[in-house]
Protein: ABC-type glycerol-3-phosphate transport system substrate-binding protein
Amino acid sequence: MRKVSSVFACLLVTGTLLSACGGNNNGNKPAADGGEATPAPAATQAAEESATPSAAPADDITQRKVTIKIHYPTPDLTEVRAQEDDKIKRFQEVYPNVEIVKDDWQYNVSEIGVKMAANEAPTFFNTYATEAKFLIEKGWVADITDLWNNYEFKDQINPVLQNQFIIDGKVYGVTQKGYVTTTMINKKMLDDKGVAVPPMDWTWDDMLNTAKGVADPKKGISGIAPMGKGNEAGWNWTNFLFEAGGEIQKIEGGKVVATFNSEAGVKALDFYKKLRWEAKAVPQDWALGWGDAVGAFQQGRTAMVMAGSDGVIEQALNQGGFKPEDVLTYPMPAAEKGGKHTGVLGGDYLVINPNASKDEQEMAFRYITFDYFSDKGLEALDAILQQRKADGKYFIPPLLDYYAADSDFGKKTKAVYDKYSDIVYQYNTDIMALLDGKPEAQYNTQDYYATMSNVIQELFAKEGTDSKAQLDAAAATVQKKFFDTIKVE
Structure:
């Protein structure tokens, strides 16, 4: 679930290597099709250096003709397409034996089965953190463990993200980017109202008190803007379900069983009721989607918003005129002191078609990782930062990227950021130790979000709702319409 501004998406692709995003991530939000993936970045030195062997062995894959159908951006992403075209050109300079066919189909859970049955799926395609077990159980994704084990940079990949596609010790995909839901705080609004900045290791009570202290309903100012429209509403609330120790579903006797109507679910829903009716901290026009909530933050009409950090900060600094010191990025609050700061973990991945030949699978893997850990990517990042500085714009690095922050490449990237410290947004160094990402549900995530959105809307519209009754009804609906149709093998 994610949301990326088009400018930010293009920036990331242009700039590297950086894969990250939220959309919509990117800022990050749920979407009916799971979100959109951004192709990964610039050129790899290692690949180029290996392009001219003195004498190729007879079984050298570079001596055999191979055709791969690649995941390609949609027509509306003109700048992203230009970047991918550049990558194709560079890749074929290293591997002239490879013919590349472009395919702009974007992963959709309702279409993937037909694509695989008709043998029309690309050699590799994008998918999301929620889909790992589903695709593996259906046999629609290749086991690339051997390719992974021979990959030079596997130990530098971000394990938090990559582990979502490592199941029972086998590797089934490569991470592009990811996010953990965070809370962005407008510090200036707190200062203007004399409200203390909460501790980084904050709790639900801290969030409630901060939101209540800033809210001024008569002036149309809210303390926090939980998303209340579309699947985003259910997605935002799920963070609190996780923080309270709840789960969306469980597997029992080969069936998927709804579990969000638990004591933890009631606790999380009751907290929303406190924000809305006790603190009066939620916008009066609470029917906000991702763009609406982020827009309210950018315009100074709400002090807090919950999403992937990148897109929110991008809009606040480069469109809203905020100063970096006035935009604070916090982990999600713990339900109680000492609890986990759990946020929904999402991400974009590239997986390989199991129907492809071994040569096609290997070349697909080489293409996917072609720009990872690239010195030329670092040069491109430097150029992006130079241009941003010249344009008077800030650069917001992703909170989570495909590489591990403490890897050699992570350190090289940080060194580039440090050269432009006056325009690169700085996250509080304490946040990484507190972040706790929990993946979205493996089955019918969007259907669950949509159902919970109806619950949130009823709660915001009518005082005195019965949280347990609401959740029981929602769980019954999700169970009958969606979960009962699934057979787990």
Remarks:
- Residues 3 and 23 are 2 Å apart (CA to CA).
- Confidence is low (pLDDT under 50) at residues 2-27, 31-54.
- The longest strand covers residues 341-352.
- The chain is about 40% helix and 15% strand.
